[in-house]
Amino acid sequence: MSPVLKLKELILRFISYRQAECFKTSLAFILYYSGIAFIAGAFLPKGASILVYHSISDGKRGVFSDNIVFSEIFEKQISYLAKKYKIVPLSLLIERLESKKEVPRDWVVLTFDDGYKDNLDNVLPVIEKYNAFATFYITMDVVKRRLVFFYDLIQKIINSTGKKAIIVAIDDKDERFDLSSAEKKNEAVLQMVLKTRGKSNEERIMFVESLKERCSEQIDTSNEKERLYLSEEDLRTLQESGNELASHSVSHVNLVGMSDRKLDEEIVGSKKEIGRAHV
Q1: What gap in Å lies between CA 242 and CA 130, rounded to an integer?
Q2: 170 bridge partner residues
Q3: Hey, how many other C-beta atoms are within 10 angstroms of the C-beta on 60?
Q4: pLDDT at 17 (0 to 100)
Q5: 34 vs 131: CA distance, rounded Å
Q6: Mean pLDDT, the chain, as a whole number?
């Protein structure tokens, strides 16, 4: 698990997810309106900013809640960026870096991870409206083989269950999760994802199956895929609109400790599949 995720898990042992989000928002508000952010910016190295998004939606489609930025908020963000900054393709930034030329501080790059269907439905109209570009990092298993991300499955299962609380084993230890409200459900999902994110794909599958059993829920993964993720035709539409496609691995597995052969399959294999998908 990365240091950022470890810190996040530690913080969420003491406060709720909503409290953490409120604190983060309040801190950003103070830094911005006090002028501290602008003063600090004068001493930071020059360079572009890269913004990382996942899903842009209304939060009602079974996507892991921590990956969502609401559509209305997203458009406000892009509107602001289009006025104050220059939104450029990632390839242009890479070209500037490789040629060792100075990178303007007003450059911003938009990236979207995983390959959610709402990237086409909700992102493309907005970036076209503001003459912006984006790079979409695609996980090919959700596009071609109907994989459903384990965290989206967890969110779907918890959203669907009518139980007010469950006990499920994580690392051979039974843990109780309060599901008595929508807020509690989102907090439970986040905790489960943080505790299982660093595990192997096989361990994630086992956890999801045990969760389905505890919640007495049956999830139609093929139907879920049709609603949530991009198709090969969608990829072509995104690229034909002037945007870029990039590799986000084949199956979104944990790459830490993986053999060179497996790494080659996940990284190089993904790039080859993306190339074939949008030719």
Answers
A1: 13
A2: 173
A3: 8
A4: 63
A5: 31
A6: 85
224, 156 contact by CB (below 8 A): yes
The one-character DSSP state at 120 is I
What is the gyration radius of the CA atoms in the chain, in angstroms? 20
Ranges in the chain, pLDDT < 70: 1-9, 12-18, 44-45, 61, 217, 219-226, 277-279
Other CB atoms within a 10 A radius of the CB of residue 27 amount to 10
pTM reported for the whole predicted model: 0.82
Other CB atoms closer than 10 Å to residue 21's CB: what's the count?
Answer: 12
Question: CA-to-CA distance for 116 and 252, rounded, in angstroms?
Answer: 13
Tokens of 151: 């965290």
> Tokens at residue 21, please?
């989000």
- Give dist(CA 175, CA 209) in Å, integer: 16
Nearest to 243 by CA among 98, 116, 137, 140: 137
Q: Give the CA diameter of the chain.
A: 58
Of 24, 49, 6, give the one whose Cα is nearest residue 198: 6
Alpha-helix residue ranges (DSSP H) falling in the chain: 3-11, 17-33, 36-41, 71-84, 90-98, 118, 124-129, 140-144, 150-160, 182-196, 201-215, 221-228, 232-240, 260-277
Give the orientation angle of helix 182-196 with respect to helix 201-215, to 10 degrees: 150
Rounded-to-integer distance, Cα 237 and Cα 65, Å = 26
228 burial (CB, 10 Å; 0-12 / 13-18 / 19+) is: buried
Nearest to 151 by CA among 267, 250, 63: 63
Cα angle value 184/189/190 (rounded, 5°):
100
Question: Tokens for 178?
Answer: 């309060």
